[in-house]
Structures are given as structure tokens and as C-alpha cells.
Amino acid sequence: MTGIYDDPWAYELACSFRDVGAEAGALLGWCAEHRPDAAGPVRTVLELAAGPAEHARELARRGLTATALDLNPAMCAYAAREAGRAGVSVEVVEDDMTAFDLGRRFDLVLTMLDSTSHLMTLDAFVAHLRRVAAHLAPGGLYVIEMSHPRDRLSDDPSVSTGWTVERDGVHASVRWGEPTDLLDPITQIADDHVTMTIEADGATRIIEDVVPYRFWTATELDAAIRLARGLDVVARYGDFGTGADAVALTDPEAWRMITILRPS
Length: 264
Prior knowledge:
The protein is α/β, with parallel strands linked by helices.
């Protein structure tokens, strides 16, 4: 059975409710706010656990030199193909987000869409952060986008586990997680059941998968950062917004946990 991550087109469709352009604008806005003046303009970006690499593609379109890294070969092939179709240059690297060594540093590093949930242990998260620190240029930023903790710790989650999308005449309904997908209280891992129903040209296709998900609290993230050393938290947000549009993590409207790190 083909899983959701083995079908990059379907995965990108499932996530197409996101406004990648606006999010890229926020990323660059945070760079303007939190990078020291001496660091200069942002020229290079590395997207980790990039999947289809939509943010890397968008930032490349805006003139940055972009690299996208993912462990899944199908995702890497798709990201390279879509970058070519869009007429933008993105270097795609198939590698592990806990062990990569690209031999150069970047002004901006990203991990989006809660992809750190694939880091199942504290050791893996610390290894990941150390690799990021080794690849950040002086004054560079690392932006981690994670789910808001209330999604797993309260009866009033920020986002629904079910949604619909439409793009280019294709309609899809997505369920990412069921009420019975409970966190293991020891490991904080849940096996999230994913069902995606795609309707196009009178045909229906169903993708079913089980995706292990590791929930990380804000305090656990802080602990991993301290253990890794070399990175400091400079800001936290609850949505993609800058300046007057910034949303605090504690705001009732917050729906993500976005942490911005900088070399110590």
C-alpha cells in the first residue's frame, strides 16, 4: 500500500490550504526583525524535511539560493521536478535531518509543517539541532514550525483533524488523525491514521496510511535546545505574522508554535 508520503502530489494537495506565499513573506519579515544588521541580507535558505519543498521553491522565486533536504526519495524527485516546472533553481538533497553535512552555512534554515514530529527521541532532536547549528551562518536564523500544544493537550484544539481542499478541478477530503489515535503516555508518540479521498474526472482514489507522530511540548523543545548548545531562542509566535500582525504563542487565536533560533 502506498502511503501519503510516497505520493508527493497527493501530500502537496492535502496541504494546499496553506498560503505559502504569505508564509514566505513572514519568514523574510522575521529575518529583517531578528537578524543583526551586520549579517546583511538573506541570500541562502535550507529547508529541512522539505517534502515537496514548497517554501524553498517560493523563496527561490524571490531570489534566494535555495536548498531542500528530505529523506524520502519520492519527495526529493517530486521537489526537483516541480522546481524545474516552475522555472526556479532549488538544489534537492536526499539526506537525514539528524545527520546531514552539506559543508556550507545558510542565512536561513526552516523546518515547516510540524516535520519535527518525525524526531521520535530526545537524542534525535538534539542531534538535529546540532546539525542545524553547524549549518547556520553568523546571524542566521532557524525557524521551526510545530503544532500548537493545545492540539494535543486540551479539549479545544487549534485545528481540525478533517478538512477539504480543491485545486485545478480536483476535490479532496482529508482526515489526519482519529479520536482513537491517542498519545502513548510514556513515549508521547501516537499512530495517526490518515485517510485522503481524491475525486477527479469522475474517478475516486483513496489513500490510507498510519503515520507515527511524536508530540513535543514547548518545555521539551527548550530542553533539547539547551542540551544541543549553540542556539538561542530569539522569538516565539503563534502564527505567520510580523510587526503589528504578529501573534503571540499564548494568544487565543494562535494555531502554531513557531520558534526562531539564532547562533549563540
